[in-house]
Amino acid sequence: MSNDSNAQAAQAPEGAEKKVEAQAQNQAQAQDKAIVADVKPIVEAPMLTPAADAKSEAPEEPKPAKAKPRAKEKEKEKEKEAEDEEKVLEEKVMTINLRHAFLTYGRKATPKAVRLVKRVTCKAFKTEDVSLDNSLNEFLWARGKTKTARRVAVKVQKLESGKVRVLPAEA
Q1: pLDDT, tens digit, for every residue of 88-123?
Q2: Is 74 part of any domain?
Q3: What's the pLDDT band for 76 if we cut at 50, 70, 90?
Q4: pTM
Q5: Could you tell me if 100 and 116 are in contact, meaning their C-beta atoms sit under 8 angstroms apart?
Q6: What's the number of domains the chain is made of?
Q7: Hey, is 73 helix, strand or coil?
Q8: 47 half-sphere exposure, CB direction, 13 A CA radius
Q9: DSSP of 101-139, one letter per residue?
Q10: Can you tell me the distance from the alpha carbon of 102 to that of 150, in angstroms, rounded to the nearest whole number?
Q11: Residue 126's domain is classified under what CATH number?
Q12: Is 92 found in the same domain as 46?
């Protein structure tokens, strides 16, 4: 095709040359259309039923984002709820002087304060099963390992199961 069309273009005048170029473009476009017509779509659109049309027409409401706590956090929450549900037999508000813990040397002050709080509550309620609340523990450790509070006000609860729970007193 290239040899014949070039020879014809050389012999023909300028008007004929334009016709030849137009014919060549038309042939190229026809070939492109034939190639495109042979290509099948990769994914065909699914047929929509009337029920599917109704669903697609309804505006979708965005779902609120929920924070998913880890399994350990869920277990802790369940334990706290179980403890809270447990019946409180006796409750006292006490102020514990932590002078002995404050006067210890080195890095033993706060650990000794924690032991002192447990020991005082054990004596007051005559039991060995004592647990400190996280907020009370954070209060004792807030100033670090060497500097602890001088005294702490606590609310002590004796539960039906025999456990003693130590909470910070509400001011």
Answers
A1: 888 899 999 999 988 888 889 999 999 999 999 999
A2: no
A3: confident
A4: 0.51
A5: yes
A6: 2
A7: helix
A8: 1
A9: HHT--GGGHHHHHHHHHHHHHHHHHT-S-EEE-HHHHHH
A10: 6
A11: 3.10.440.10
A12: no
In the chain, what is the straight-line distance between the N-terminal and C-terminal CA atoms, in Å? 100
Domain that holds residue 42: 1-56
Q: Is residue 81 part of a domain?
A: no
Are residues 98 and 163 located together in one domain of the fold? yes
Q: Give percent of the chain with pLDDT exceeding 90.
A: 34
- The tokens describing 165, both together, are 């729970």
Same domain, 107 and 158: yes
Q: Are residues 45 and 92 in the same domain?
A: no
Residue type, 133: D
Using alpha carbons, list the distances in angstroms from residue 92 to 56, 69, 84, 156, 162: 62, 34, 16, 5, 15
Q: What confidence tens digit (pLDDT) does each residue in 139-149 have?
A: 999 999 999 99
